[in-house]
Amino acid sequence: MRTLVTGGAGFIGSHFVRSLLSDPTTEAVTVLDALTYAGNPANLAPVADDSRLRFVRGDILDAERVAGLMAEHDAVVHLAAESHVDRSIADGGDFASTNMLGTQVLLEAAVRTGLGTFVHVSTDEVYGSIAVGSWTEDQPLAPNSPYSAAKSGSDLLALAYHRTHGLDVRITRCSNNYGPYQYPEKIIPLFITSLLDGRRVPLYGDGGQVRDWLHVEDHCRALRLVLEGGRPGEVYNIGGGTELTNKQLTERLLDACGRDWDSVVHVEDRKGHDARYSVDWTKIHDELGYEPRRSFDEGLAATVAWYRENTAWWKAALD
Ligand code: NAD
Question: pTM above 0.90?
């Protein structure tokens, strides 16, 4: 299979590309990435010499370029996005254009070029916030941030292209990812790098927000299962099975970095902060045999160790 990966120089995209290339049966992988602040060619350094990999610096909004690339591939795994909620609160413009319009440009090209399969990588944040229980895939979308609203728009467009044009679209909605190569702005890499650097970390509000944590390798394995065995027009939730409040997470990060609560500054809560996310991932488990393999404690320890050993990577990313 020849796969086009949008956003393949970002956190999850680069893991996905490395995972595809670790499989000898993979024919070719092309990365299309605009290299925004979050995209980093160094994330692909471990596979840079693989002759099956081609890197194209470009914008998913560039319809002509997208159509040219699409015609040369059997499948697209679409990860390119503006992905940080705080940035969407500061300014939602790029979120609307990249996440919604950019997705529409890709879908249109997929129809015109007769693409085989389009995996649209979405997020559990499209469902909103849930006090108890977990969302199944038929839960109506109720996003609260400009980020999740723009992702919801892209999900609806993807489903519309399936229903209207018969395009083989498969949507995934996963919980919060963590692991190596994540740009230090989201809570886990921000806290690890700050604590390792001797700086204090900002905890929003009372730290009571609950998130489900998923190691990026488990997410990428689930994406491959959907790419290879998912059904057209279906949505698959992907969860990690470890729910923690941000306060509990902070406690573990402080422990792992050898620091204490003196290193934490309590700051005003994020505007519109969702209280809890929780996906029910029975469907992908029963249909495709997915379940997370990395335990959170082991995965977090390995992630902290990676940031400790790769100071040059994150210092350069922040420059
Ligand atoms: P990221 O911010 O690390 O990477 C995004 C990548 O997209 C970057 O390489 C960036 O350069 C590229 N990009 C941005 N705008 C582009 C454009 N207009 N054209 C081409 N490339 C562009 O994001 P991530 O955390 O790896 O997330 C990847 C996907 O997974 C996103 O769609 C996100 O919504 C989704 N997701 C992420 C998480 C998470 O916890 N990180 C959870 C659920 C879903």
Answer: yes
